[in-house]
Design a protein that fits this description.
The protein folds into two domains: 265 residues, Vaccinia Virus protein VP39 (Rossmann fold); 114 residues, Rossmann fold, CATH 3.40.50.20. It has ten helices and 19 strands. It starts with a strand and ends with a strand. The chain has a seven-stranded mixed sheet with strand order 9-8-7-10-11-13-12, sandwiched between helices. It has a six-stranded mixed sheet with strand order 16-17-15-14-18-19, with helices on both faces. Helix 2 crosses helix 3.
Length: 385
């Protein structure tokens, strides 16, 4: 359906509503619960931006300052990258390696990382580029960890709107940031103001075309695609040097040209992506319900594999008691031993330990085959979108 909700980037008043329409307790990207929150996903008809008109919109500063925990459950918590089926490495290491594939940097310069989290990327960067001047900021409680980890850097606590470097920066880095801000085009323009002419903007975002789960995420205010990122870049005065897709994340390197253009309309491309993702997201919820129903009928425990938003959101959205879930299974060892909805999070060893016979997949379809190959030897029934 259509409604008059202005697009945050182009201010056009007409957008199409996307699944799901929901108000209640929502799930955030750091696996926390937000009460009295809505999901109102939209597709702008004028520029094609896919955005959540609700969620944390209008209260992002308060959310990141007080609620966003950003892998702060323990000292080792962090995102792992399983791209390509190889042995997992930290997302920070994969991100640094990809920067070297997409852009060539000088031995000396100034870098500014926006929303630097606990400083994982900068750990790799400072080793490889010891003569660079390091600046970073972080709005969340991870600021103290970041400051301690990089005592020689200039670290501030706040948002991008609080920082001005007046065109002195050679490299701006924003990893998992652009999808969170209220207006990604505004942040793109801010980045351009910080960079020298010819400076590099290196970013990483979840690629919505590979991540239907993002429809259920309350704090990813923009569901970003390669067509959207390219349009935003050109409108803010950047040229695309290159991009790389690696599982769900997409990495992109941009060079400042200083010649801002017009925001292109990528509605057709994004409409196809949105339609496909809505179909997968609906089927993902159905898969969880089928898994639950069959397990209950047979008197067996069931689990959810992956910490994607669909699995965390399902008992809230489909209104069943999360106590029915025996466990959440995941390959990221740094989250083992934690809990979600009071249910344990752990590895495949919980299958035998808890007698699990049925598992629903709450992951990107990109990883379905990879995960199925690991689960099939366990003798469980697997349910997916």
């Amino acid at each position: 359906m259509s409604g008059k909700i202005n697009c945050p980037c182009c201010d056009h008043p007409v957008s199409q509503g996307l699944y799901p329409e929901y108000t209640g307790t929502c799930v955030t990207s750091d696996m926390e619960m937000l009460e009295n929150t809505s999901i109102n996903n939209r597709l702008c008809e004028a520029c094609g931006l896919i955005f959540n008109a609700a969620g944390t919109r209008g209260k992002t500063e308060e959310f990141y300052a007080s609620s966003y925990k950003l892998m702060m459950r323990n000292d080792t918590s962090g995102v792992q990258s399983f791209a390509g089926g190889a042995q997992p490495i930290s997302q920070a290491e994969r991100t640094f390696d990809t920067l070297g594939e997409l852009a060539e940097l000088h031995p000396k310069g100034m870098v500014l990382e926006a929303g630097a989290g606990k400083g994982g990327f900068l750990e790799h960067f400072t080793v490889a580029f010891p003569e660079w001047e390091i600046h970073a900021f972080e709005p969340s409680m991870a600021f103290e960890v970041l400051k301690t980890a990089h005592p020689d850097a200039v670290i501030t606590q706040g948002n991008y709107t609080d920082v001005e470097m007046d065109g002195r920066v050679d490299l701006v880095v924003a990893l998992g940031v652009l999808e969170h801000v209220e207006n990604p085009l505004d942040m793109m323009h801010w980045v351009a103001r910080q960079l020298v002419n010819g400076g590099i903007f290196y970013l990483r975002v979840p690629n919505f075309s590979k991540n239907p789960n993002d429809l259920f995420c309350a704090d990813h205010l923009s569901k970003l695609t390669v067509p959207t990122l390219t349009s935003l870049a050109h409108a803010a005065g950047f040229e695309v040097i290159g991009h790389k897709e690696a599982g769900v994340p997409v990495f992109m390197a941009l060079r400042k040209t200083g010649q801002a253009g017009k925001l292109a309309n990528v509605y057709i491309e994004n409409s196809k992506i949105a339609s496909s993702n809505v179909d997968v997201a609906e089927r993902a919820m159905d898969a969880i319900l089928r898994c639950r129903k069959t397990a209950n009928q047979q008197g067996d425990p069931f689990a959810i594999f992956g910490l994607g938003s669909s699995g965390l959101f399902s008992p809230l959205f489909m209104d069943f008691n999360p106590d029915e879930i025996a466990a959440y299974l995941d390959e990221n060892k740094s989250v083992w031993g934690s809990s979600i909805h009071g249910r344990p999070v752990g590895g495949l060893d919980l299958i035998e330990k808890l007698g699990i016979k049925h598992i629903a997949l709450a992951i990107s379809p990109t990883y379905f085959d990879q995960v199925r190959a690991k689960l099939e030897p366990e003798g469980v029934s697997i349910y997916s979108a």
